Amino acid sequence: MPMKIIDLSLPISDEAFEVHRVRIERVSHEAGVRKFNRVIMGKTLLGRLKYALGMRIVKKEELPEEEFLSLEIVHAPVHIGTHLDYSFHYGSKSENRPSKTADEIPLEWCYCDAVKIDLTYKKPNETIGPKDLEEGLKKINYSLKPNDIVLLFTGADRFFGTPKYFSDYPGIEPAAIDYLLDKGIKIFGVDTMGIDRPYKFMLAEFLKTKDPAKLYPAHFHGRKREFIHIERLANLGKIPDYGFKVMCLPVRIKQTGAAWARVAAIL
Length: 267
Hints:
Elements: E1 5-7, E2 23-27, H1 29-41, H2 45-52, E3 71-75, E4 83-85, H3 87-90, E5 93-94, E6 97-98, E7 111-118, E8 127-128, H4 130-139, E9 149-153, E10 171-172, H5 174-182, E11 187-190, H6 199-209, H7 217-220, E12 228-231, E13 242-247, E14 258-260, E15 264-266
Helix pairs in contact: 1-2, 4-5
């Protein structure tokens, strides 16, 4: 059979509804020549003066089709779009050691056999526990093995681009993360915007009880045990339960708690 690749990633978009601001500056082919002159001539005082007087080192008439190169500049948090989180995101220390950043994720963990667990029955504000994982694996007759990439399928990606994407999805219990780690799992992923319950539920409970355990328990569990997870996956309904590999190579950004990734299932 020929190889088939299914994209499991969401885009970084300045048109989708987001809590954090995303801005993509798009310099067109026509505007590119102006930017080129401004940047190159702006490196010296004399160049800036000449530019202000209307001089140009490259004119559009001197270019093929009078076009330069396009340029896009993305201003966005590393947690926008599909991305991998590592322990530095969770806290300054993990397992009593300095936390690791996303550029330290071992690449050999990012191309492995994968399995999908169907959790689409879970409702917003509910949590996914170890029993849910056990029952999901039992239904498909699959036993986890070390380094499997586990994908938790809730279907929440259908809300991407709307406010419901930030409010209609289940969270993961720390005990469920322990269940995966005890099986030798290095990376698991979700098709939700985060691994904890929506913040509106967590914040309401925290304000009512003042119990810090109500806030981001799954993320803060990364201070106790080191793990990597993928957030904002998509299209998990288009892949089989198992029998495929997942590639989730993170973009190499220095000293960040997360990194964008183009995640794909390879059948």
